[in-house]
Amino acid sequence: MLIEVKNLVKRYGDLIALDHLSLSIKEGEVFGLLGPNGSGKTTAINCILSLLKYDKGEIKVFNRPMSPEAYDIKRNIGIVMQNVAVYDELTVYENIDYFCGLYINDKSLKKRLVDEAIEFTGLNDYTKFYPKKLSGGLLRRLNIACGITHKPKLIIMDEPTVAVDPQSRNRILEGILELNKQGATIVYTSHYMEEVEKICSRIAILDKGKVIAIGTRDELKAMISTGEKITVEAWNISDDQIQRLRNIPSIISAEYDRPTLTIKSAKGRNNLEEVLGYLRKEEIQFGKIYSELPTLNDVFLEITGKELRD
């Protein structure tokens, strides 16, 4: 395992930030830590990096115990933290060059790596800009370039797309997948389930400092009873009709907030067909109707009783 965390406990007074957290992350994965704000994602990352002392547990990185003094291990790690960490008095180029220089002494190699990081993050036209002149999306890209310029084997990204525009977010996500193709193992924390579903090969869902579920996207969705959510635009549905709909064996729940009828169904092949048949039988007028498979938010909701963004 590239990262192994066993029974990690971190307390802040009476608050238990990490409650016997255990994780195993394989080489070559894009591993997602998904959970609402305050679930323990950033605390877990800081403990793994030995930036934060913890009360109990064991952490190994590259099959070796991690510690604040393990500089040979840290040399192979790239970090992109949630809060942008660059120097305002340095230009884009100077920032990337400085961070690369913390790991690489050879001048010609450093120049090549800096140029590659600039090309990779699409900052070619901004090398002489100072950070304060950059948009939020460009600033995030600079933050990533500084974290990955020395070509680390392990890259840890903590909420790297917070407060960026959709175009920059897509570029960042595409860049993460490309880094993984080039051989880097990625640990990616987020409370945006759509991002985690899109890029992560395996996912751990955290809540209150615990791993409540772990697996691939499909494995996580297989843990819950919900098969699909069917949304119908409908008018004049009576309470009796809603109740009869709920009595259909394959229907888990049906809620009506005029004009939107939201139906959650059990796993099966003919749920949409069954709902359409019921609407026609009851002569209920309806417009748009669509079906969507369960999301990671549905997994979280069924396990915890609350939304991921609560």
Q: Please identify, by name, the CATH architecture of the largest domain.
A: 3-Layer(aba) Sandwich
Discrete helix count = 11
List low-pLDDT spans: none
**Strands, count:** 14
Element string (H = helix, E = strand): EEEHEEHEHHHEHEHEEHEHEEHEH
Number of spatially distinct domains: 2
- Kindly estimate the percentage of residues that lie in beta strands according to DSSP: 25-35%
Shape field? elongated
Instruction: Give the CATH class of the largest domain.
Output: Alpha Beta
**Rounded mean pLDDT score:** 93
- What name does CATH use for the topology of the largest domain? Rossmann fold
Q: Report helical residue fraction.
A: 25-40%
**Biggest β-sheet: count, sense, barrel?**
6 strands, mixed
Record the strand order, biggest sheet: 6-7-8-3-9-10
End-to-end separation? 33 Å
Radius of gyration: 24 Å
Structural class: alpha/beta
CATH superfamily of the largest domain: P-loop containing nucleotide triphosphate hydrolases
Question: Any key phrases for this structure?
Answer:
310 residues, Rossmann fold, Alpha-Beta Plaits, 2 domains, four-stranded antiparallel β-sheet, 11 helices, 34% helix
Can you give a write-up of this model?
The structure is a single chain. The chain has 310 residues and is an alpha/beta fold. The protein has two domains: 3-221, P-loop containing nucleotide triphosphate hydrolases (Rossmann fold, 3-Layer(aba) Sandwich); 226-293, YebC, transcriptional regulation domain (Alpha-Beta Plaits, 2-Layer Sandwich). The chain is 34% helix and 29% strand. It has helices at 41-48, 71-74, 92-101, 107-121, 136-148, 166-181, 193-199, 217-221, 239-246, 271-281, 296-304; strands at residues 3-12, 15-25, 30-34, 56-61, 64-65, 77-80, 154-158, 185-190, 202-207, 210-215, 226-234, 251-257, 260-266, 286-292. It has a six-stranded mixed sheet, sandwiched between helices. Strand 12 and strand 13 form a beta hairpin.
